[in-house]
Amino acid sequence: MSDQRVTRPTPISGFPEWSPEIRSVELRWLDHIRAGFERYGFASVETPSVEALDVLMAKGETSQEVYTLHRLQADADDDSDARLGLHFDLTVPFARYVAQHFNELVFPFKRYQIQRVWRGERPQEGRFREFTQCDIDVINVDQVPLHFDAELPRVVHEVLSGLDIPAWTLNINNRKVLQGCYEGLGIGDPVAVIRAVDKLHKIGDDGVHAILLGEVGLSEEQAKVCLDLAHIRGSDTSVVDEIAKLGVRSELLNEGLDELGFVLDSLADLPSGSVMADLSVARGLDYYTGTVYEAAFRDDPGYGSICAGGRYDNLAGQFIRRSLPGVGISIGLTRIFAKLVAEGRITAGRHCPTDVLVVVPSDERRGEALATAARLREAGHNTEVYHQADKVGKQIRYASRKGIPFVWFPPFEDGRPHEVKDLATGEQTTADPAAWPARRG
């Protein structure tokens, strides 16, 4: 035993990692999501894990969440890394990307981005410091047609419906409805009210009421209307009539109601319960300007949003002197997947992707085993060669433990045929590695 110090391996809170058989399921999910995005014409983009801090700050009040970079042995006179941070979402990097590559892109630019992001918040159920997001966004010059506000939820519905996850609902609102209503009430700081209402599901009516009266300085009547608005829900445009009954009038409110009604009408063909107008959805970040989305599990709404996003007008414009509005939505893959793993609802995949294990008959015949494996790979089979010339039984046990469905026996003697054993049935037959059918276990 060496005297070398042993560092005890311990998991880091908020940074999930999976066994190979669970990771293989996550990879299948990622492939499914990617294919769903591409069916609607979204192109893949990947941005660096780090951005300049002034870019990351473009989204609003996020400084406490950003992980900054510095080298352990950094030069005291070199502060270049201190101006960098890990991206905490994919929307801001995308806005920077569009501005930077403006002359190379075709607009409307439809992109998807599937990457890990990092947030320095306290880990808890459903909240991680490192996680994977799956985003789709549309950015255009000057104006994004409203039908994209309805297309994005349709894409997400199609994608998530193809995964075996608990029932969920996508809640939709429009920031113009909120801001227009607050302005119609004579409230001087509508954004402060939006931030307060965004906490409704966390602190309840009494908590929001206290903030509206105390911190925001509303009257009792103004606070009551704000809370009444937040409690309006519906699956169709009848919510527009409910909002009208509040008796508030403003141009911006009317504009928001028209947009909300259009999106609800466009999604009316989706199964009942898939989409709901929920006037409590506010999305506290400052840059949202129109439609906003937030999805949650129906039986566990307190778990947190599994999908969120909305329309933004000025985010990309902070990096270029052009009007580049956009609309986007993000699937919180890690939040969804981790919940199902914790609840035992993920059926584990195989331990490895290998279809065939080629037995090594002897050290002298390793070359034959390697040549056999090469032919099997050319035929489309994931193939590995056993690592040494052990007893055949030991090699078969290795394949069985790893869940490899087939074991291939190259000739043990000159003039003998190849044979393959199906570990599921125990059947062993002669076979030609160049013509063996492309079966998968």
UniProtKB/TrEMBL annotation:
EC number from the UniProt entry: 6.1.1.21
Keywords, sorted A to Z: Aminoacyl-tRNA synthetase, ATP-binding, Cytoplasm, Ligase, Nucleotide-binding, Protein biosynthesis
Highest taxon, organism lineage: Bacteria
InterPro entries linked: aa-tRNA-synth_II, aa-tRNA-synth_II/BPL/LPL, Anticodon-bd, Anticodon-bd_dom_sf, His-tRNA-ligase, HisRS-like_core, HisRS/HisZ
SUPFAM superfamilies the record matches: Class II aaRS ABD-related (SSF52954), Class II aaRS and biotin synthetases (SSF55681)
GO molecular function: histidine-tRNA ligase activity
A Pfam family: tRNA-synt_His
Domain Aminoacyl-transfer RNA synthetases class-II family profile, chain residue ranges per copy: 38-361
Catalytic activity: tRNA(His) + L-histidine + ATP = L-histidyl-tRNA(His) + AMP + diphosphate + H(+)
Transmembrane regions listed in the UniProt entry: none
Broad class of enzyme this protein falls into: ligase
CDD domains: HisRS-like_core (cd00773)
Quaternary organization: Homodimer.
The family this protein is said to belong to: Belongs to the class-II aminoacyl-tRNA synthetase family.
Protein name stated in the entry: Histidine--tRNA ligase
Record organism: Marinactinospora rubrisoli
Gene giving rise to this polypeptide: hisS
